[in-house]
Amino acid sequence: MNPIPRSPAPPDAIRETPVVVAVCGPEGCGKSRLIRSILPRLTAAGVKTAVIKRASRPLDPSGPDRYSTAFRQAGAGAVGVFDGELSMVVQRRRITEQHLISQFQDAGLILMEGFDRSFWPKLELVRSGYSNRPSCDLSTVLALVTDLSLPPCGVPQLPFDCQAVADFLLYYYYREIGVNVMESSSANKTVSVPEGVLRAALVTVSDSIYAGTSPNAAAPNASEKLTQAGFELVSVSLLPRDRAMLSAELTRLADSRLADLVVTMGGTGCSLYDCTPEATADVTERALPGVCEALRRALADLSDGAMLDRSISGMRKRTVLVNLPGEPEQALPCLERLLPGLKATVEAIRKDG
Q: Helix (H, G, I), strand (E, B), or coil: what is residue 40?
C-alpha cells in the first residue's frame, strides 16, 4: 500500500475556496467507478471531498424519500428534508455548477463528474472501447487517465488505477492549497525500516515497454543483481516517459522510507521526450556527482555515446536515487559496476541514523 501524504495544516487555514477538479470522459467509460474507488484514499488522507455529478438523463427525485415526492405532487415548488444529520433539497430550477460548488464551502476538494467543456481543471479518461484520443481542451487537462498507449501530448498520462490517480490528485490538491507537497508527504512515516535490511526499488522508464509493444528485458536481470548484492527488492514499477509521474513515484519511494536505493532505467538520452534526469532533479535534495562520474566511466567502456548520457544521481531524505540508461547491454554492466559503492553508501547513510 502506498503511503498517503497528509497536509501539515488544515486546508481551510490556507485556502478559502475548495479545489475543483472535473473528471471527464465518454459516457460509460468508468468515471463514477474511478471516483468511488479513490474517495476512500482521499478521505484517509484527511481531505474532505464532495462530488458533483452531471446526470445524462432527467433525474428521478423520488428515490427512497417519499416526503418530497408527496409534497411536490401536492403543489410545493421546492421541498427540503432533513433528519438532523442528512439534508436534501428538491426543486425544479435551472442552476449552474458554480451554484452547486457554493453549497460545499466546507469541502477541501470537489470532484465534478462530467463537465467536459467547462474551464475547470480536468482528469480526462481515455479508455479502450470508448475513445482513442483526448477530446477536452488540453490546456485545461491536468492528466489523462488511460489504458492505451497514447503519443505524448504535453500532459501527464496516468494508468487507470485508483492508487495512481488518488496520489496524483493529492499532490495537485496540496500544491493548490499552498502546502509544500514534498515536505507534507515526508511527515507521514508509514514504513518502518528493519535494522540491517537494505531495501531497493527498480523503476523502468519506457514508452514502448509501458505500452506493451516491447519486452522489459533488463528489469528481471537488474532485479536479480540487486538481490544478489544483498538488497531486498520492495518495488518494481514501470512508467512511461512522463516527468510528473516519475517525480511522484520517486517522491513516494523516498518520503515513505520504502526504499534506501531507487534505481531508474531509461529516459536518460537526448530525445525530446527523455525526462528521467529532469524528474529526478525535481525531487533531489542533495547531488551525488561521484556516482555519475563512475557511471560514465563504466559507460565509456561500453559505448562511444557515453558523453551523451544525461543521468544524474542524488539523495532525497535518506534515499539514494540513481539513473541508469535503458538499454540492457549498458544498464546491467553499469549496475554491476556501481553496486558495491552504492551498497556501501546506503549502509553508511543507515548507520548515520
A: helix
pLDDT of residue 145: 93
In the sheet with 49-53, reading across from the earlier edge strand, the strands are 49-53, 109-113, 19-24, 122-126, 141-146, 157-159
What are the backbone dihedrals phi and psi of residue 218, each rounded to the nearest 5 degrees, phi first?
-85, -30
Query: Residue 241, SS3?
Result: coil
Distance CA 239, CA 158 (A): 9
Q: What is residue 290's predicted lDDT score, i.e. its pLDDT? A: 92
The Cα 116–Cα 120 span in angstroms is: 9
pLDDT, residue 173, reads: 87
* Residue numbers in the chain where pLDDT is lower than 70: 1-16, 55-67, 94-97, 179-196, 353
Summarised one tens digit per residue, pLDDT across range 44-92 is 888 889 998 876 666 665 555 566 777 777 878 788 777 777 777 777 7
Which pLDDT score is estimated for 221? Answer: 92
d(CA 75, CA 55): 25
Tell me the CA distances in angstroms from 233 to 206, 217, 224, 229, 315, one per residue in order.
Answer: 20, 17, 9, 11, 19
Angle between helices 162-176 and 243-255 (to 10 degrees): 90
The predicted structure's pLDDT at residue 4? 38
How far apart (Å, rounded) are the C-alpha atoms in residues 246 and 323?
A: 12
Strands 261-265 and 319-324 turn out to be parallel
Task: At 60, list the grid cell.
Answer: 428521478
- Full-model pTM: 0.50
Task: Taking each helix axis as running N to C, give the angle between helix 218-228 and helix 328-351, from 0 to 180 degrees, rounded to the nearest 10.
Answer: 30
Query: Side-chain half-sphere of 129: how many Cα atoms within 13 Å?
Result: 5
Instruction: Dihedral sign for Cα 282, 283, 289, 295, please.
Output: negative
Distance CA 351, CA 325 (A): 30
**pLDDT (0 to 100) of residue 3:** 39
CB atoms within 10 A of CB 87: 9
Task: Please give the angle made by the CA atoms of 76, 80 and 86, to the nearest 5 degrees.
Answer: 160
- Pairing type for strands 231-239 and 198-205 reads parallel
3-state secondary structure of 114: coil
Task: Report which secondary-structure segment, H or E, holds 39.
Answer: helix 31-44
